[in-house]
Each structure stands twice: as C-alpha cells, then as structure tokens.
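REQUEST FORM: STRUCTURE PREDICTION
Request ID: SP-0412
Submitted by: Lab K.M.
Chain count: 1
Length (residues): 263
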Amino acid sequence: MTAVTRPTASRPVSPLRALLTMTGMEARLLTREWAPMLFAFVFPPMMMLVLAGVFASDNGPEFLGLNGTDYYIAAYLAVPISAMTLIGLPVALAGYRERGVLRRLSASGQSQLTVIGAQVLVTALLVVLGAGLVLAVAAPVYGLPPVDDLAGVVGAFALGAGMLLTLGVALGLAVGTARSAQALGLLLFMPMWLLGGGGPPPGVMTGPMQTIADFLPLTPVTTAVRDAWLGSGDLGEPLLLTAAWLAGGLVLVAALRRRRARE
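STATUS: Completed
RESULT:
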C-alpha cells in the first residue's frame, strides 16, 4: 500500500517578519516615487545654507542672543522631519488607498497596520538621512556648533519625528488620492516651515504671526532641538507640547482607521 503523505501546513509568518518584509518592499518601491523625496531632501539643506549665511553676523535679541548661523543650523536639524512626513508619507498612503492596494492586501490576510508600519519605518529612515544631510552640508561650509545636551537633542528629535510621522499617517488616511495628499502636504508644510523655526526668528514676527507659530506642531520640535543643542532654554514646555500633538495625532489616526474600516 502506498503511503499517503500529508501536506505540511505552512508556518504562519510572524508580525515582525511581515513588517520587515513589507518595509524592504516599500524601500524598493520608493525609488519610483522620487519627486517628493527629492524636494524633501534638497529643500532643507538649501534653505539652511541661505539663511545661515544671510544672518551669519547677527546675534541680537531676535535670535535669543545666539549666533544667526548656529541658530539656523540647529533649527534645520528638525526641518527634514516635517518635509518627509508631510510630503512623502501621505502621498504613499493615499496612493495605496486610491489604487485599492490596502483593500487587496486586507483581503489576502495582510494587516493594514503592517503596511502603515512599513511606510512609517521607511519614512523614519529618510528623516534620519535628511537630518544627516543637513549636518553634512553645514559642517564644511559653516562648521557645526558644539552640542550642549546630546541626549536632549536626540530625545527631542525622536519625539518630534514620532509626532509628525503620526500626523503624516493621519493625512494619508484622511484624503482620497495621492495628488490631493501632495497638495495638502505642501500647503501644511510651507507655513509650518516658515513660521515654525525655518523662516524668520520669532523676535521679528508680528504678534498674530507669533500666535500662529505657537500653535504649529513643528514649532515645539525645532525649539526643543535648538535649545538642547545650543543650551538656550528649558526643554520642558516644548517637549510637553510635542507630546500633546503626538497624543492628538494617535487619536486622529485611530478614528480615521475606524472610519475607513466601515467604508
């Protein structure tokens, strides 16, 4: 009698392995969507070079008594966070929703959280590379100011990246097409960059502009990174504001996921 061989059951893929596999795939696919990433990589170091050079000799009260060059180098370490998270990440997520990729992946048993997590990990890597590019461009041209509190800089950068990644995911889930995500991302990024630490210092803004700047999510991030790097202020308030934005972003993402699940 011929023995009957039973088919071996396939081993389930662990969530971590699925996430890492999806992250590798997303990283490869990113090379096809290079236009938003090109802006996100080029714009921050280019503007840092311009502003740090223009205000190189300024150290007045509008710059909190700091050297203008040091002020902008430290502040621009945080600018790539918003560039990557508001321009690249929402476009990728909205594009997946527009083309039905998320629905098809869900139908095949792939968790949407895995896809979103992979997009977040890839964007987080790009954020670190973008910040490193700012420093790599600044170092030979102006030199890097000494770091007063390295742990504070790393902590503020990481918390700010987590917060803006959450807002980027929310934007990607909120809009229906990649084109609308790119347009809204740019509309959010430009005032956030200009008033949130990458444009004129708060001391030269009018009262209403300063009020608007205080309510932008990028402002506490650039403030915390700059103050930790240059030792120019207390980190408590900007870190608390960043954490509050992070909590709000997580609530918004959860609400949007529930809404999309009912569609």
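NOTES: Residues 15-262 form one domain.
Reviewed by: T.R.
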